[in-house]
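Quick start: read one record
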Amino acid sequence: MHKFDQLPGELIWSICAHLCRNQKGDLSSVGQLSTLNKRFKRSVNNFTTHLRFKRQIFLLNDGDCLFQKILSVFSNVHSLDMSLHYDNLKIETLAMVFQQCPNLRAIDLRGSRGHHLHLHRLQSLMTFDLPSENGVSMPLIKSFKARYLTDSDLSVILSIFPNLEDLWLEECQWMSNCSGITNLQSIQRLRITNHPHLPKTTVHEISLLPRLSQLDLSSTSLDDEGMQIIATNMLNLSNLILSGCKLSDLGISFICQSKVGPNIRSLDISYCKQLTDCSLFHIASKLKYLQFLNLRSCLQITDKGIDNISLMNIYLLHLDLSNCFQVTDTGIKFLCHRCQYLKNLNVSGSNVSDEGMLYLSESKNKIQKIQIYSCGKVTKKGLEYLSKGCSSSLICM
């Protein structure tokens, strides 16, 4: 192994990365190399901050043993991605992760079903069954992502990781409340999605988080009443994702007319099929510094709403109008003439034609990316307009 010592550090890491991409034997080789060569282990630790495991590891008969061996090599890892379907992951293995990786700051468990993983047992395992060695304490986790959690699972997570800044809870229909979430005084990004019966008590708990800047409640039962609670209490929001929520124009007016309105830079209200041009009027008149707006499949949006947006939201950078079939070439004309900073435009599935492509090609604002999937009225002629006038743009069709 003396010749191995003479290799550059970058090459050592490349060898390790190649071994990790393959099957059981090569993965074992990583552990063997680390025990035979201290420089290999030191080099790997220096080069590695993010580690992502594939499903095959936990399908092996000795998967847990192999996993532990790999962790011994990558003990300095900061981010651990285990999101690729790990229903075989055991809670004992997870407890081992937290003890062997003291510098861990982010972990993604979205591949495991929380109610199968039994996260509520984690606290007792860390305290009794698997005591930390040499006085090593729990890692200071800042980002935690999981799916299918229950109330008891969430309670344990909130107590073990009180310094979370980023919390993603997906497919959490078994959660009836988020009691205790207000103790997360440092949290800045929160995602609770696919909850068909999101309680008003949970919405109220969320609204009391003082530092929250990004909130994602996609595909939840959030309605106008819940939106009013959020708009009244949350003053630091800049990124709001409400895709598929049960909102009407009234709910949008609450957020736009609140004190937080001027702070909003990104708004996703895609698939909110009750929204009309009235919502766009509220957005245009109050969210002056909006840069990202997603209106995908807002079926009642017309050129009139686009007129308002283009007239007053001059700082708009990204606009998604896909499947807004009532938006025509007239709406495209408004955008081309007024939104001078627009860089990304998606009109897939809309009612635009070759005339709209002509407006885009003649626009002084050179849009970097234009998406026109499933635009049945755009012919070869329209594409020629784009190829001549938007030669530097990425056109997706």
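The first helix runs from residue 9 to 20.
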